[in-house]
Amino acid sequence: VAGENFDQSPLRRTFKSKVLAHYPQNIEWNPFDQDAVNMLCMPKGLSFRTQADNRDPQLHSFIITREDGSRTYGFVLTFYEEVTSKQICTAMQTLYQMHNAEQYGSVCASSSCSMDSLASSIDEGDATSLAKLQRYNSYDISRDTLYVSKCICLITPLPFMQACKKFLIQLYKAVTSQQPPPLPLESYIHNILYEVPLPPPGRSLKFYGVYEPIICQRPGPNELPLSDYPLREVFELLGLENLVQVFTCVLLEMQILLYSQ
């Protein structure tokens, strides 16, 4: 388990994640930092869900800044896939049994009752809350389907967010589709890693993803730096008043700290 979150139900806890594979194995100008990428791809750790939970894919990005000031950009698509290991499913049910036993005992203690006299001494309010607790904190291996989070990540020298987002979504669709794509998945990964060049400054580049073409554009030497993030999201996240205040602080050359979960 990642962090001290044992008080939460097992499906609300986070677990330690790890890098399953990365390609290529190493690049001279950009050595792979497994710990950093693992932490940034899954900052909250590995998580589990059931068929009753929301499992929509989520996309986020990160920046690795090195000592020399060079930057590497990561774009991550997190999704959930079904757990096929019987051992993991059994372990999850065991965690729930242990968790519910602890919660059951705490309800007992708060009601000043013993296990033998629970039925006679627990009042209606506690009984109702206990029933709700057990319904919410339940996982039945014979009834529920267990899912675990997984992510695919692209690490790039420039922040081509839209292009990376489109490629990752197309790759995810190819992985989960019942109809396989025209070529093996490895072909598309090899193509974007080795055959798609960076567009020259001031030029745009069109390349093919898995299903549809993708376009990315690189600013010229006299243009503003590449900012491929939609401005609408900034307004949605900060709000108009906060954004005006941040912009004012920028113009006044004040120090700005943005804090987020």
Please give a handful of descriptors for the protein shown.
261 residues; alpha+beta; 3 domains; four-stranded antiparallel sheet; two-stranded antiparallel ribbon; 8 helices; 37% helix; globular
Write the layout of secondary structure elements.
Elements: H1 34-41, E1 48-50, E2 58-65, E3 71-82, H2 86-110, H3 118-121, H4 124-136, E4 146-156, H5 161-176, H6 185-195, E5 204-208, E6 213-217, H7 231-238, H8 240-251
Antiparallel strand pairs: 1-4, 2-3, 3-4, 5-6
Helix pairs in contact: 2-4, 7-8
Write structural notes for this entry.
By secondary structure, the chain is α+β, with helices and mostly antiparallel strands. It folds into 3 domains: 1-104 and 130-157, no CATH class; 160-228, no CATH class; 230-260, no CATH class. Helix content is 37%, strand content 17%. It is built from 8 helices and 6 strands; from the N terminus they run αβββαααβααββαα. It has helices spanning 34-41, 86-110, 118-121, 124-136, 161-176, 185-195, 231-238, 240-251, and strands spanning 48-50, 58-65, 71-82, 146-156, 204-208, 213-217. The chain has a 4-stranded antiparallel sheet. Strands 5-6 form a two-stranded antiparallel ribbon. Strand 5 (204-208) and strand 6 (213-217) form a beta hairpin. Helix 7 crosses helix 8.
